[in-house]
Amino acid sequence: MLVVIYTWTVIRAPIDSVQGIVQKVLYVHPPLAWGAYLGFIVTGVCGALYLWRRNESTDQLAVSGAEVGVLFCSLILVTGPIWAKGTWGKWWTWDPRLATTLLQWFVYLAYILLRNFSDGGARAARFASLYGIVGVILIPLNYYVIEIFEGRAMHPENLERGSLGDGMGLPFLMGNLTLLAAFLYLLLSRWEIEGLRTRVARQAATARRGEL
Amino acid sequence: MSYLIAAYGLTAISLIGYGIHLSRERRALGRADRDTKTD
Question: Which of B1, B13, B36 to probe by mutation at the A interface, max A CB count within 10 Å?
Answer without folding.
Answer: B36
